[in-house]
Design goal:
about 230 residues; alpha/beta; seven-stranded mixed sheet; 14 strands; about 25% helix; binds D-4-phosphoerythronic acid; isomerase; ribose-5-phosphate isomerase
């Protein structure tokens, strides 16, 4: 089974929880893409009716629109019945790192407004602690004096051996999020300790918009592995 086939298995399993008439948060990324496709397929088969989607990025908005899923927004639907989205890391307490696709802000807005948030991953995303994959923990910052923000973020996590980098596109220019902001990717060599304390430290910095740690937001995590699918709940 390829990694993409595992992602699809997890996504399809999550979509079993979608019921007609629901307002569904539609995640972003290569795993969530399968969930969006599956919802559209079931709608076409008449097995799901009256679904309203809330997209977590312009990418997902375009995919859902092209598949005929009716879309709305949080202003119209302040409470979302169910969100389905991928993750970059999942720790044993079901805390997540998200945002390597750059959509963390709108994802966190939608998923924190959801009655239920099902995370879908292949087993490669499981880590012992946040930052443990050695991959980026993204922080969305305003473009104004971004390098000042970078230096202050790096200093916050000096004890964890933190490297901070401005995210750039293939053209070497700063990546710009759907919200017109920049992203600073943080890399940790060591465990950053209490996540809520780390989150407070980051969010207290002026100029910071949001970070990619999703602490205590996931209701359950569907993990597709070569030996089958497991569902982790808190
Ligand atoms: O960028 C994001 O937040 C994505 O949801 C990410 O967390 C998972 O992306 P993937 O499903 O392509 O691995």
């Amino acid at each position: 089974l390829t990694q993409d086939e595992l992602k699809k298995i997890a996504a399809y399993k999550a979509v079993e929880h979608v019921q007609s008439g629901m307002v569904i948060g539609l995640g972003t990324g290569s795993t969530a893409k399968h969930a969006v496709g599956r919802i559209a397929e079931l709608m076409k088969q008449g097995k799901l009716i009256g679904i309203v989607g809330i997209a977590t990025s312009t990418k997902t908005y375009e995919q859902a629109t092209s598949l005929g899923i009716p879309l709305s927004d949080l202003d119209t639907h302040p409470i979302v019945d169910l969100s389905i989205d991928g993750a970059d890391e999942v720790d044993p307490d079901l805390n997540l790192v998200k945002g390597r696709g750059g959509s963390l802000l709108r994802e966190k807005m939608v998923e924190s407004a959801s009655k239920k948030f099902i995370v879908i991953v292949d087993e490669s995303k499981l880590v012992g602690h946040i930052g443990g994959s050695g991959l980026a923990m993204p922080v969305e910052v305003i473009p104004f004096c971004w390098s000042h923000s970078l230096i202050r973020l790096k200093a916050l996590f000096a004890g964890s051996g933190c490297v901070a980098k401005l995210r750039t596109g293939d053209d070497g220019e700063a990546y710009v999020s759907d919200n017109g902001n920049y992203i600073i990717d943080l890399y940790f060599e060591r465990d950053i300790g209490d996540l809520n304390e780390a989150s407070d430290r980051i969010l207290r910095l002026p100029g910071i918009v949001e970070h990619g740690m999703f602490i205590g937001l996931a209701s359950s995590v569907i993990v597709a592995g070569v030996h089958g699918v497991t569902v982790k709940t808190k």
